[in-house]
Design goal:
The protein folds into 2 domains: 10-194 and 235-260, 3-Layer(aba) Sandwich (Rossmann fold); 197-233, no CATH class. The protein contains 8 helices and 7 strands, in the order βαβαβαβαβαβαααβ. The chain has helices at 19-30, 42-54, 69-83, 106-131, 159-181, 199-210, 217-226, 236-247; strands at residues 10-14, 34-39, 59-63, 88-91, 141-146, 186-193, 258-261. The two termini are 34 Å apart.
């Protein structure tokens, strides 16, 4: 038996319209899972679901603003009714707003906290409620939260973002402890990606030049690569493959941990 086979599993992925979220949805579907693309970007989310459907996967789109408690309730209900259950929640949605701490805006900090911390905490809450014994799905499962290498290193210009991703790591460990103690049957882990050349990654590199930390976006990328022992940027597939592992039976005794997928940058 292939321990990485997710046939029969049902997964909801937030922020799945593009980037790591879309790549994770593809990887989960390729492993056999039915997937729910949850995103605030309706056009992008529907396009992602349709692409997966065209390849033969079971995939639907549900609108979700991860900051909304009622939005989460509705998305989980729709997911379970549409694909027949829920075994996996990937809390991937996140935003990054670069700034030197001396220039940090309170509004920008609140926005990152709302999406990155509140959004992840609500995803854990509603994932637990659905997957624990007596829940609407009730078969246990796995939650994977997407943190960042920014939670493990001191990189200038991303203080607020780093703080929120450090919080995701703490939420993960406490959620795993609660799930185990209370018998939910849900494993909770997080992944800390290195820099990936998605739209968010490209914007971050440009921001580093704009706030004066590097002469150009290219120099900023070079600086990251220079700090990475494997000598390259990450790829979406590098992240998605580890997420599939954490959702699979191969990770059946893994919970409450953060897996760095950063080429050694955070070592």
């Amino acid at each position: 038996m292939n321990k990485f086979d997710l046939s029969g599993r049902k997964a909801l992925i937030t922020g799945a319209a593009a980037g790591i979220g879309a790549g994770t949805a593809r990887a989960l579907a390729d492993a056999g899972a039915a997937v729910v693309i949850a995103d605030i970007d309706e056009a992008g989310g529907r396009a992602c679901a349709e692409t997966l459907q065209a390849s033969g996967a079971t995939a639907i789109f549900v609108p979700l603003d991860v900051r909304s408690d009622t939005g989460w309730s509705a998305a989980i209900d729709q997911a379970i009714s549409s694909i027949g259950g829920l075994d996996i929640v990937i809390n991937n949605a996140g935003i990054e707003i670069s700034s030197l701490l001396i220039d940090q805006s309170a509004d920008d900090l609140k926005r990152m906290c709302d999406v990155n911390i509140v959004g992840t905490a609500l995803g854990i809450k509603h994932g637990f409620r659905a997957m624990k014994p007596g829940g609407a799905a009730g078969q246990g499962g796995a939650i994977v939260n997407i943190a960042s290498v920014a939670a493990t290193i001191a990189f200038p210009g991303i203080g607020g973002y780093s703080a929120t991703k450090s919080a995701v790591d703490r939420l993960t460990r406490i959620a795993a402890a609660e799930a185990g103690k209370l018998g939910y049957g849900v494993r909770v882990n997080c992944v800390c990606p290195g820099l990936v050349p998605t739209a968010m990654g490209a914007k971050l590199a440009g921001d580093m030049a704009e706030i004066g930390l590097f002469a150009s976006a290219e120099e900023a990328v070079g600086g990251v690569i220079a700090q990475t022992p494997l000598g390259r940027l990450g790829e979406i597939a590098d992240m998605a493959d580890v997420i599939v592992f954490l959702c699979s039976d191969a990770a059946r005794f893994v919970t409450g941990t953060a897996v760095s997928v950063d080429g050694g940058m955070g070592s």
